[in-house]
Structures are given as C-alpha cells and as structure tokens.
Amino acid sequence: MWQATEDVLESIAIGAGILGTGGGGNPYIGQLRARQAIKKWGPVTVLTPEELPDDARVVCVGGIGAPTVGIEKVRDLQSYHALRAIEDYTGERATALISNEIGGSNSVEPLIPAARAGLPVVDADGMGRAFPEFQMKTFFVYGVPCCPMAVADEKGNSAIVRETINPAWAERLARALTIQMGCVACYAVAPMTSEQVRRTAVPNTLSLARDLGDAVKQARDDGDDPLAAILSVCPGKVLFTGKVVDVDRRTTAGFARGTLTIDGLESCSGSRMVIEFQNENLIARRDGEIVCTVPDLICAVATDLGEPVTTELMRYGLRVTILGFPAPELWISPEGLAVAGPQAFGYETDYVRLSV
Amino acid sequence: MWQATEDVLESIAIGAGILGTGGGGNPYIGQLRARQAIKKWGPVTVLTPEELPDDARVVCVGGIGAPTVGIEKVRDLQSYHALRAIEDYTGERATALISNEIGGSNSVEPLIPAARAGLPVVDADGMGRAFPEFQMKTFFVYGVPCCPMAVADEKGNSAIVRETINPAWAERLARALTIQMGCVACYAVAPMTSEQVRRTAVPNTLSLARDLGDAVKQARDDGDDPLAAILSVCPGKVLFTGKVVDVDRRTTAGFARGTLTIDGLESCSGSRMVIEFQNENLIARRDGEIVCTVPDLICAVATDLGEPVTTELMRYGLRVTILGFPAPELWISPEGLAVAGPQAFGYETDYVRLSV
Fold first, then answer.
1. Residue B287's pLDDT band (boundaries 50, 70, 90)?
2. Taking CB atoms and an 8 Å cutoff, what residues of chain A touch B150?
3. pLDDT of residue B25
4. Hey, of B81, B162, B180, which one would you mutate to test binding to chain A, going by the most A CBs within 10 A of its CB?
5. Can you say whether residue A327 is alpha, beta or left, with left for phi > 0 and alpha for psi between -120 and 50 degrees?
6. pLDDT at residue number A340
7. Which chain A residues touch B if contact means CB-CB below 8 Å?
8. How many other C-beta atoms are found inside a 10 Å radius of the C-beta of residue B195?
9. By a Cβ cutoff of 8 Å, what residues of chain B touch chain A?
C-alpha cells in the first residue's frame, strides 16, 4: 500500500509515457489533471491486487479517443461521470478503481475519480502497456465481460453500451459515441471482483511506472545515462537510435494513425527505422525487416533525457531512441495474441517474442 | 378500440406511405413484418389516448436509419429487443406501445413488439407524419424527456443513450450507434404516462392511415379518382403533377438525402418542381418558388393509382402527383417550429402554413 500524492505524479508520467508505446493519452496533460484532483480532494491510496478486500467491486476507468485531440480537449470530470453512470446502471457502488492501461495519461486517469469519490486504486491495469482499442485488455481476454460499460463526455452526455455480441462490438459502439462526443471521452466498465482482478490484471504496473520515472530522474540528476536507467528497471533493449525524418499522422475514425520514419545515427548510421502506429506503436521495421511487433512494447524516448515521446508530439528533427520490451506474460498466450498480436492489427506476420 | 389484424395492414401501409412524406421506412416492408408478427402472435388491440388506463406506461418504439438500407437489411425483432432493453434499464414494464411516427413502416413498427409481448398500441404518434431525426417528436417538444432511450440491432447489440444535454444530442448519439449497427436499428424511449400521451401525441393517426388506405382502395375498386379520395379523407391540395426526370439520392451520415426533379404534365405542363429530401420531403419549389415546407406534408403519390412513392423507391419516369397537407396543430407553435420548421433543417425561409 502506498499513497499517490502530487509528488509521485511526475515520475508516473515519465514511466507511463515509456510504457505507453506512443499512446495512452498525453502523460503530461494527465499528470496536470491528476495533480489538480489530488490537490483538491487529497491523495489516493494504492493497493496491490492482494491487498484488495475479497469482496471489492473494482471499476476499470479510462479515456478513449485520439491522443491528438486529447491534448486540446477539456476533459474535466468525464471519468467520474462515467463511473457514476455505470454505478447507476448496475446498481452497485465501486469500492476501488483500476486503470484500463498503464500507458500515457490513462495510467493516472483513475486517480481523478478516485480522489473525487474517496476510493483507492489498484496497482495494476488491463494491458501492462497501452493499446488503441477498448477490447484489448487482459481482463476481457480472460473472461471478464466487457459490457455493460458507460461512456461520458464533459458536457453532460452519457450512454451505456449494454450488451454486445463480442468485445470488438463494444469497441465499435463506444468509439462511435466517442467520435460524436468530440473524439475524446471517458468510460467505466461494470465492476469486477477481486478474484477477477488478481487473475486477469497485469500487476504492479503503477509502481513500475513510478519506479521507471524515478530512475530516469535520478539518472538525469546524477548525470548518468537515462536509457540505461530505464533498462535497469524494466528489462528490454535498444532497437534503434536516430533522428526523426518524417511523421505521417492523421486523426481518423477516432484514432491517431500513421507512420514514423527515423534515420539512424551513431551505431545505427546508414539504417532507417519505420514504425507504424494506431495511437500506439504497432510494428517496427529496420531497413524493411521486422524487429518488433505488438504486443511487445515499442517505445520512443528522447535520446538525451530519456523523456518519452508520444505519437501526438512526435515531430521532424527529434533525436529519439527506440526501446523494445517483451509484453507481459498474459499477452503471449494464444488467447492474448488473438486479441492484441500483430494479426489482430492486420499484419500477416507471426508474433516473435523480443529476446533481451 | 379496434383490432389491428392482418386485414387492415394493407390500408395502413398505403395511408402511412402517404403521411410519411417520402420517409418513415418502406411501408410495404413494414407491412410484411407486421403481418408476420400478427400471424404468429395474434392481432393487436388499438386504444385511443382516452381509452388508455390512467396509470399506463407507454413506450414509444421506432426504427431509425436510412430507408434505402431499410429495404434490404434484416430487422427481425429489433424493436422488441429495444423495448426489453429500456424496460430493463428503467425497471418498469410497458403496458402499451406508441408509434414514434405514423409515416412509413414506423406506423406499424410498434405492432411487432406489441404482438410479441401481448400489449396494446395507442392510436396516436409523435409526429402525425414522418421526420428524419429522433428529436423531432411532439412528445419532446412538449416536455417529455427524450432519454433514456435504448437502441438495438438484430445481432444482439444494444446500448442506452442515458442522458444528454438536449434532444439533438440524443439524435446524434443514437444515429452514431445506428450507423455502426448497419444504418438501420430500432429504439425504445423510457415510458410515458397517459397524461403525457394525451397532451403531447398527435391523436388518431393510426386510424387516419387506415382510413386513407381504405379510401384509396375503394376508389380503385370503384374506378374513381384515388387522389380525390385521399383529399376527401385528409384535407389538403394538389401541389403539382408530372413526370420524375431526376433523382439525386445518396445514403450519407445515416440518412437518404437528395433532390427530386419533376417536369410538369397536364395543368402543370411547362413547369418544374424540385423537392429536397432528408429521408422525408422537406421543401418543394415550383419554378424556383417555395410552395410548401416542413412541417407541412409534401407527399408524392403515383398519379394513376394513388400509391405513395417513398424516397428510396423514387425513380426516373414515374408519373407522380405531389400533394400538400397542413401539419398537425402541435407543430405550428413556436416550440414546434423551432424543432421541425424549415429553419431547423437549415432553410432560411419562414414557415407559411399551406392554405387548403
């Protein structure tokens, strides 16, 4: 058990930016929003899945939409409205909240309604990274129903996706509502049990994000290499280093989609990396050859300071290093890969786990 | 009180086709679906608003989407699923159903869930015609809340539009869900009271549709003029007669939108009428001059047989007569015109009531 105070938010934002693989919503904006909520309503208790009471009712909350829009659009208490809407629909009160994805601003999204409602959050999430689509959560892969779920905007509109024939249809209907709501909204899923959280969530990811951020900050303070600090906390490898020479990004169908091209520097000089993204980085090719795919993590950080660079802020001229991390174990089962492997995103390649 | 049996469906389809002003869903398809339901589960009792028990809970059900799609897409028991979804959400059981609009297939849509559930329907509706958008109902103009409402498809997906800041947002979210569901879905609105029905519905419209159809059939049998028969039942006037020379129709944003051009014949020879539609006919211009606008009814019927011609079946070469009817009184108040007058559809013209 620990307290999410204003002091830890900067570290979480750095770590969640790295784990977000480009997406999950802008972590700086998320940090500001969480800071405001904690300043107003006080710190939030963070419980491990084991520390949850056995009879807990755990609601997963998150933002949905295009990160490009999320950096501009007011969100206010969207996720609190979504929480109240799903409580109202199910007739059950949440006793704890959990992040849908540890990547980007969604890592701290639950802190806002948790601070407002005086609830704890769970040190875990439904991805162990970020993914672009609602149904891509370990919860749903391992049998938690994806519906009913509530979608709410900041204006006072809310809807319930009540029942769908499969999780992809929940994504489809929620995305259509989100687009109407201005391309960014928040959602809340019907409560899970503690048993479901312990069995299906990726554990200890909020503290992992915090520890990653702490390590980066410490390395900067000490004049050490922040990239080495990241890899010491989270086992992974450097995939590429270079300069961004092209970003082809469009906000379409409720996502930020596109391609990032990096020309190699230093040890990668003469090579080129091309990364395709849908909010998150999906596949990295070096000189045409696939070197990493979903569900493994493809993370861009500024080469000098280890600062994560998300999809919506990527731009020409940035010096970035691309890090790769193997996906959480829950994703590499056949059921997990069916939902978030390369083929789930339309790539014909098979998943080959990144060796580190 | 009367019984909606298989025998009355053909007349209702003709009358509802006329009152549909081009839209409301294909009346022939609606008739076939209602016939199947009544054959399977028996006739449906039709009550006037006054005959409703004072404690009745009346659910408005209807189809939503593009009529062009509605003639092809399977609907099955969509409206029954929507009914059950809103009952489940509100915790209240419907004791009667009411049509959202008397035009087109929506006139008989409530008969299907009513037959299935053994409920009566009310001889009234929320438009006294057809309109393209969800919020364009007399119910909502006069204070009935438009939410919560349920949207369901034939596959097993359903959603609740729970709360919106105004009725236009309910249309916006329901339309987005409908498009995902395949451009045709069904909805059900939270129950109304008998007092609300009596005060805000356009009364006696199901019997009006039946009487219109009966008159057309009788005239055909007797070798009389079916157009004169229509005007004897429903006061209105002939606006134009001619041959369809162009139909510019596209299915877009969940509607069938376009323009219909008719070259005059007989007394209209040398003139041209152009009608713009959004599912329904919105504005009729003769040689550039506006002769009729919403909320008044602009209805196209085949000149020879008085058969209504809906938007999705309109085609080059048809001989049609355009009839105009003044809108129900509930629409011509300032509140009514704000929702369904010409300016609500983006036309700058003021409403001038059709004189008959």
1. very high
2. 162
3. 85
4. B162
5. beta
6. 95
7. 85, 88-89, 150, 155-165, 169, 172-173, 176-177, 179-181
8. 12
9. 85, 88-89, 150, 155-165, 169, 172-173, 176-177, 179-181
Per-residue confidence band for A107, with pLDDT thresholds at 50, 70 and 90: very high
Rounded average pLDDT over B328-344: 96
pLDDT at B40: 97
* Count of A-B CB contacts under 8 Å: 69
Closest partner CB to A85 (pick from B156, B162, B169): B162
d(CA A7, CA B89): 42
Number of H helices and E strands in chain A, helices first, is 11, 17
pLDDT in tens, B20-66: 999 888 889 999 999 999 999 999 999 999 999 999 999 999 999 88
- Both tokens of A126, joined, read 């439904």
Taking the CA of residue B291 and the nearest CA in chain A, the distance in Å comes to 36
User: In this structure, what are the phi and psi dihedrals at residue A333, rounded to the nearest 5 degrees?
Assistant: -75, 165
- Whether A128 has a pLDDT exceeding 90, the answer reads yes
Is residue A97 a contact partner of residue A37, using CB atoms and an 8 Å limit? no
Residue B307 to residue A130: CA distance in whole angstroms: 58
> Which of A156, A164, A177 minimises the CB distance to B157?
A164
Give the Å distances, CA to CA, from A306 to A67, A89, A217, A225, B214: 21, 43, 9, 8, 79
pLDDT band per the 50, 70, 90 thresholds, residue A46:
very high
pLDDT at B67: 77
Instruction: Indicate if the alpha-carbon torsion angle A49, A51, A56, A62 is positive or negative.
Output: negative
Strand partners, A99: A61, A125
Query: Which domains are delineated in chain B?
Result: 2-203 (3.40.1610.10), 223-345 (2.40.390.10)
Please state at what angle helix A226-233 crosses helix A205-222, rounded to 10 degrees: 150
ipTM rounded to 2 decimals: 0.85
